[in-house]
Design goal:
- By secondary structure, this protein is an alpha+beta fold.
- The chain is 24% helix and 35% strand.
- It folds into 2 domains: 222 residues, P-loop containing nucleotide triphosphate hydrolases (Rossmann fold); 52 residues, OB fold (Dihydrolipoamide Acetyltransferase, E2P) (Beta Barrel).
- It has 8 helices and 20 strands.
- A 6-stranded mixed sheet has the order 6-7-8-3-9-10, with helices on both faces. Strands 13-12-11-14-20 form a 5-stranded antiparallel sheet.
- The structure holds adenosine-5'-diphosphate (ADP) and magnesium ion.
- The site of adenosine-5'-diphosphate has 11 residues, from α1.
- Magnesium ion binds next to α1.
Length: 357
């Protein structure tokens, strides 16, 4: 059994009559790196602010180590938040910025010095003690913000899009740094991002959210390989999502052709969403595929070719290591276990399947 450190129980929150979180329940385990992933405006920051104590839920409870902290103010929670816009004090040195919380707690000078030194080393910023924040790059300022959080030894670190303001190369570097810091300090990280590749890279578990509702929870591989609905499939990487009819167990009709799959338990002839990843489609001679179409686009992406094939008006996305020519007639094949069948949103079965795995 995983050890639960934090629990949200039926959290509801609206602003101006608009629902932002709809009955959210989730358990967060001690020492995991968990990412809340979803498009802008889906309620991620609101969820984090409720955990941090900056926002009160309309109903529902927040439990921390089994204790109800819903009405406890932020500074009394063993949590620390790092925001995208690291609010460092501009007139303080780096060391004084990091020491701020410890000074408030009236720690001794020796203890403060030692902890500041450790924190600077942890974020690879030794030697920057006396610098002012405005003389640092964005990435360095964010490291200081993280050091300032870590030095207070919170049990949980909340990070709200902390790398959002950095350019891609620096962001990727900081992702690795954060993973290393996480390993070294061994505390729980709750990380918010709208960037799916960031979530897949860094997390032990991902919570995919849309419109204030958890769509799926699980480890990165299960989220990527087995998305539970078309939203998750589309949001996590590129996918082909096409209407199908589930004839019977393991037999789905796609664009008029019967195709063998591995999914079972659907109603006879239930309309479904069929999801196939671009890298799982194989280009074959026309008669060898389950459908055939015309190549309309071929773009070289370095490791593979990004190809579009038009089949009766639907543009299939395919990633292939071998090139084809625009105008070629080709077939498309897919292994049965690379076909994901999903209930249509709103169908009775789709409503009950937020499964944690
Ligand atoms: N204090 C607030 N007052 C009014 N509306 C808010 C407030 N905070 C957030 N919202 C609204 O709630 C929705 C979710 O916001 P947010 O949690 O910030 O989303 P995300 O972090 O996923 O982008 C948005 O529509 C936003 O405008
Ligand atoms: Mg946000």
């Amino acid at each position: 059994m995983p050890d639960t450190i934090l629990e949200l129980k039926s959290i509801k929150k609206s602003f101006d009559g608009k629902t932002v979180l709809e009955d959210m329940s989730v358990e967060i385990y001690r020492n995991e790196f968990i990412t809340v992933l979803g498009p802008s405006g889906c309620g991620k920051s609101t969820m984090l602010r409720i955990i941090g104590g900056f926002e009160k839920p309309d109903s529902g409870r927040v439990l921390f180590n089994g204790e109800d902290i819903t009405d406890i103010p932020p500074n009394k929670r063993s949590l620390h938040t790092v925001f995208q816009h690291y609010s460092l004090f501009p007139h303080y040195s780096v060391a004084d910025n990091i020491a701020f919380g410890l000074k408030l707690k009236k720690k001794s000078k020796e203890e403060i010095n030692e902890k500041v030194k450790y924190a600077l080393k942890l974020v690879n910023m030794e030697g920057y003690e006396n610098r002012r924040p405005d003389s640092l790059s964005g990435g360095q300022q964010q490291r200081v913000a993280i050091a300032r959080a870590i030095v207070n030894e919170p049990e949980v670190l909340l990070l709200d899009e902390p790398l959002g303001a950095l350019d891609l190369k620096l962001r990727m570097e900081m992702q690795r740094e954060l993973m290393r810091i996480k390993r070294e300090v061994g505390i729980t990280f709750i990380y918010v991002t709208h960037d799916q590749s960031e979530a897949l890279t860094m997390s032990d578990r991902i919570i995919v959210m849309n419109k204030g509702i958890i769509q799926q929870m699980g480890d990165p591989k299960s989220i990527y390989d087995e998305p539970q609905n078309a939203f998750v499939a589309d949001f996590i990487g590129e996918s082909n999502i096409i209407d199908g009819i589930m004839h019977a167990d393991c037999l789905v009709k796609i664009q008029g052709k019967d195709v063998v799959c591995v999914d079972t338990g659907f109603a006879p002839d239930e309309p479904v969403d069929v999801v196939i990843r671009p890298e799982d489609l194989v280009i074959t001679p026309p008669e060898k595929g389950f459908i055939e179409g015309i190549v309309t686009e071929v773009v070289y992406e370095g490791a593979y070719y990004d190809i579009r094939v038009n089949v009766e008006g639907y543009e299939w996305k395919i990633q292939n290591v071998k090139p084809v020519m625009c105008g070629d007639k080709v077939g498309l094949a897919v292994a049965p276990d690379n076909i994901q069948i999903m209930h249509k949103p709103g169908s009775e079965d789709a409503k009950i399947t937020v499964r944690d795995k």
